[in-house]
């Protein structure tokens, strides 16, 4: 990485010295990196907000502003679609570093972009990715204003090119994109490099942004519905055959299957028995054992899913049909200090790096995951389900800081375990502001679907478009989101319809791998409803999964 601001100031001074003595050093000048963006104009996908405008090339004037957002040299972008800034360097140049400077001031509603992406292009139309960069400082962190550079540096980070000696990207255009959350403030972007073609400068192959399509990476799953089989006070987590049938098959008003429906089912749980702990954080060894028992027991969820598939298969004249199953891996959280004795050596495993050191904590967490995966394997093969296929495992934690000191090594370790069974893939559904949502390959995930989080929050109308755009940018799928309120609340039904319509408008209905969060039983409820409006929610969803849904007018809630 660059040595941040100071290193740059030194380099700027060096460049200035060269410029002051033109004749003698003209030859060297072409070989000394300089800020190619200095004083350049640039194109925005959307101008800054009128309250915090760009007074003219603020991003390339070389001035870094004090960390006070009222300073006119900052510019502020308010919510909405991920922004793009495009620089035309006027000619092909050799680019070896890019840095973009942002500030965060939580008290003023100014937050860092979750992700800044950097691209180069020959023609300003087709773009090759140089890097995606996550914030290194959490969003929403209280306290005084802070600043952050998002940096790509060829020397430290390398280039996405097969030539290992590649030292810079040879291109004419540079694009920087940044995500927004409330206000986003930036004041400077630098593009470092040299005029002309430097030694080992390479062209970066453009990529067509595209969703992750159903196929090899998803084990053939197109539409993966989430069923929560953890503990609920009202027994909602128990998935009997009759409750499952309206998910794996489309049922008529009488509850009779007439077609297959979701081709994949993800089982996952949140609460532990009695609601005492959570599988995302505090669950203990005994809870993990309970979850396996409830999933694989003689009268457990897998047995019911198998029975449901067999019954539907008989009715549809397709008795060999198999439902594809994905199972969660609970999160072995680092806050857990007394998990339980996984390996029987009399010592309870401690996942906390502050207490046992980073290496031992990672080792203990690996031990728990490894044990769990072994159990799944054994219990699955012992049961011999006639109509199920174990297609993969699901990582429950919804965000991942990248880096060896965070969960990255544990996720990669788990990925290797999943892939040691060649028939399985590794699934993940990061939330909208998650770290690492672009880092599918780096983390070892195969099938990733981004949560738009539009259903639950009163987000801007553009959120679905933005999530769809980011999913294409990162080459991942999309999560559909709804819950029981779609059947009872007009405003929530409107949002449900927006997700359906977005699938047509942004192409994720037919082209993307999708996961479906539907609360606990929203689709089951709508399938059984005698209210034609409520029942139509189920029918629309079925049409959406089949790719035949036609956009509906979004009904306005009654005031
Ligand atoms: Ca500036
Ligand atoms: Ca300004
Ligand atoms: Ca032990």
Automatic annotation (TrEMBL):
Keywords: Signal
Residue ranges of every copy of the F5/8 type C domain listed in the record: 19-194
Keyword Transit peptide: no
Cross-referenced InterPro entries: DUF4855, FA58C, Galactose-bd-like_sf
Family annotation (Pfam families): DUF4855
PROSITE patterns: FA58C_3
Signal peptide bounds: 1-26
Name by which UniProt lists this protein: F5/8 type C domain-containing protein
Organism: Paenibacillus lautus
């Amino acid at each position: 990485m660059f040595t941040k601001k100071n290193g740059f100031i030194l380099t700027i001074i060096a460049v200035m010295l060269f410029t002051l003595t033109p004749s003698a050093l003209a030859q060297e000048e072409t070989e000394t990196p300089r800020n190619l963006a200095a004083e350049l104009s640039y194109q925005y996908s959307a101008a800054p907000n009128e309250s915090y405008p760009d007074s003219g090339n603020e991003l390339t004037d070389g001035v870094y502003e004090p960390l006070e957002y009222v300073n006119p040299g900052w510019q502020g972008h308010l919510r909405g679609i991920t922004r793009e800034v495009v620089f035309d360097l006027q000619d092909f140049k050799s680019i070896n570093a890019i840095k973009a400077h942002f500030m965060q001031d939580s008290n003023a509603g100014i937050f860092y972009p979750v992700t800044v992406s950097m691209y180069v292009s020959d023609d300003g139309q087709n773009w090759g990715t140089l890097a995606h960069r996550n914030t290194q400082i959490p969003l929403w962190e209280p306290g005084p204003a802070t600043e952050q550079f998002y940096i790509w540096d060829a020397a430290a980070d390398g280039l996405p090119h097969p030539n290992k000696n590649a030292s810079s990207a040879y291109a004419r255009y540079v694009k920087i994109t940044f995500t927004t959350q409330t206000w986003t403030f930036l004041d400077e972007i630098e593009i470092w490099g040299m005029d002309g073609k430097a030694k080992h400068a390479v062209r970066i192959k453009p990529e067509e942004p595209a969703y992750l399509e159903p196929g090899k990476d998803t084990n053939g799953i197109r539409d993966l519905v989430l069923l929560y089989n953890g503990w609920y006070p009202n027994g909602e987590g128990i998935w009997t055959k009759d409750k499952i049938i309206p998910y794996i098959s489309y049922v008529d008003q009488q509850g009779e299957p007439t077609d297959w429906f979701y081709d994949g089912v993800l089982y996952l749980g949140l609460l532990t028995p009695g609601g005492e702990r959570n599988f995302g954080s505090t669950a203990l060894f005994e809870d993990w054992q309970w979850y396996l028992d409830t999933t694989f027991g003689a009268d457990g969820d897998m047995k019911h899913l198998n029975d449901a598939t067999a019954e539907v298969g008989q009715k549809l004249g397709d008795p060999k049909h198999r439902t594809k199953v994905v199972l969660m891996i609970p999160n072995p959280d680092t806050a857990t200090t007394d998990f339980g004795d996984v390996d029987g050596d009399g010592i309870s495993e401690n996942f906390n790096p502050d207490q046992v050191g980073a290496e031992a904590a990672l080792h203990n967490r690996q031990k728990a995951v490894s044990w769990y995966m072994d159990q799944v394997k054994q219990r699955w093969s012992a049961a011999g389900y006639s109509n199920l296929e174990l297609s993969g495992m699901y990582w429950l934690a919804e965000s991942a800081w990248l880096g060896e000191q965070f969960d990255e090594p544990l996720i990669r370790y788990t990925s290797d375990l999943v892939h040691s069974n060649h028939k399985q893939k590794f699934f993940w559904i990061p939330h909208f502001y998650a770290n690492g949502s672009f880092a599918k390959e780096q983390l070892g995930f195969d099938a990733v679907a981004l949560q738009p989080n539009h259903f639950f929050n009163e987000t801007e109308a553009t959120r679905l478009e933005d999530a769809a755009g980011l999913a294409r940018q990162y080459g991942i799928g999309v999560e559909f989101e709804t819950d029981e309120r779609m059947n009872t609340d007009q405003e929530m039904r409107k949002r449900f319809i927006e997700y359906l319509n977005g699938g047509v408008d942004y192409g994720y209905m037919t082209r993307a791998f999708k996961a479906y969060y539907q609360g606990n039983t929203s689709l089951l409820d709508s399938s059984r409803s005698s209210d034609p409006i409520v029942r139509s929610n189920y029918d629309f969803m079925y049409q959406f999964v089949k790719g035949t849904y036609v956009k509906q007018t979004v009904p306005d809630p009654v005031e």
